[in-house]
Design a protein that fits this description.
single chain; mainly beta; Immunoglobulin-like; Lipocalin; 2 domains; 10-stranded antiparallel β-sheet; 7-stranded mixed β-sheet
Length: 337
């Protein structure tokens, strides 16, 4: 029994000794590899996305900027870091946020501006965090289909940029109405009255993949406060919006060009109240879309589905009338980028 107690005592002392060594190593290790130097970084990481519903007043976007001091003593030293706005870092598909759309909050002490742009951030003794506040002016967002961005790069006084993970931030801004999102066509038909064989095609992957059009998911992007427009996940060559439709041409599948629907909603009821063509109403070939009032034609916020029925009119038809009737149900699967 005494031998067992001795073994337990030895094991306990060994465990406590190991804890003490481990603690000493942790306390003396330099934080984030700084070796006692102050590191500056954006808390949000290299990217921060801001999304808003359409608004006419102002909204405030905030990103947090910190310095990580390795000791309380180093934190007491005033510090200044060079922060440059760099438009070359703005991602493809985004436009630099126009001056008319925003302003920096003047109450942010330590935020140094030159000609309306951030050039440096100054930390007082004991201060480790700064907030860059951007006041957005809703009335200036006249084109809700555009996505904007601001890009910032951190350097030292000699112009040397810090690591990519800490040395910069891209802040993106977009207005999204409630119908904006990536949707999957879960059911539907396209009836082509001019087709030789009756011309009914289902809106599912069975015909899309077979005929070279693999998309069953589409991005419905905010075009205005009450409109969304079809964008294909894989755009079709030559078309900005990218939605085409198969139809029967002499017994074989073909497609319409320059046709991409825009859905108009009543925001009070979520009803689809109009469908037009993104390439003109009518387009250069005379074709245009029109809502068919016999359809369900609504967005259901509980199930996040859009049900809609609409027609494509083609003036060259004899007699003149709707060439196709499109009925579809679209299910929300995720947010747009």
């Amino acid at each position: 029994m005494n031998n067992m107690k001795q073994k337990i005592t030895v094991l306990l002392v060994g465990f406590l000794l190991t804890l003490g060594i481990s603690s000493c190593v942790k306390d003396s290790a330099p934080e984030l590899g700084s070796k006692g130097n102050t590191i500056f970084k954006f808390n949000e990481g290299p990217r921060k996305d801001f999304y808003y519903l359409p608004f006419t007043g102002t909204q405030t976007a905030t990103v947090t900027f910190t310095r990580d001091a390795n000791s309380a003593a180093s934190l007491q030293n005033p510090a200044e870091v060079v922060v440059l706005e760099d438009a070359t870092l703005i991602p493809t598909g985004y436009t630099e946020l126009p001056v008319a759309n925003f302003s920096y909050a003047s109450s942010d002490a330590g935020l140094i501006l030159t000609s309306g742009k951030i050039t440096a951030i100054r930390f007082a003794a004991g201060e480790f965090s700064k907030k860059i506040k951007i006041t957005l002016t809703g009335s200036a967002w006249t084109d809700l289909s555009l996505k904007y961005a601001k890009a910032y790069k951190i350097t030292d006084v000699a112009g040397n940029q810090l690591s990519a993970g800490q040395g910069g931030l891209v802040a993106t801004f977009a207005i999204k109405n409630i119908w904006d999102g990536v949707y999957e066509v879960t059911s539907g038909t396209l009836d082509d009255v001019s087709a030789a064989s009756g011309g009914t095609f289902t809106h599912l992957n069975t015909w899309n993949a077979a005929n070279g059009y693999p998309n069953t998911q589409y991005t419905l992007k905010t075009l205005s406060a009450t409109q969304i427009a079809y964008w294909a996940g894989t755009p079709f060559s030559g078309f900005q919006f990218g939605r085409t439709y198969l139809f029967n041409a002499g017994g074989s599948a073909s497609s319409y060009g320059s046709l991409s629907p825009i859905f108009q909603f009543n925001p009070a009821t979520n009803a689809v109240v109009g469908v037009t063509n993104a390439y003109g109403q009518p387009a250069s070939n005379g074709r245009y879309f029109q809502l068919d009032p016999s359809g369900v034609n609504k967005y259901d916020p509980d199930t996040k589905t859009i049900q809609v029925k609409y027609q494509m009119f083609q003036p060259s038809l004899v007699p003149v009338g709707a060439r196709t009737t499109i009925t579809e149900t679209l299910k929300y699967v995720g947010p747009t980028n």
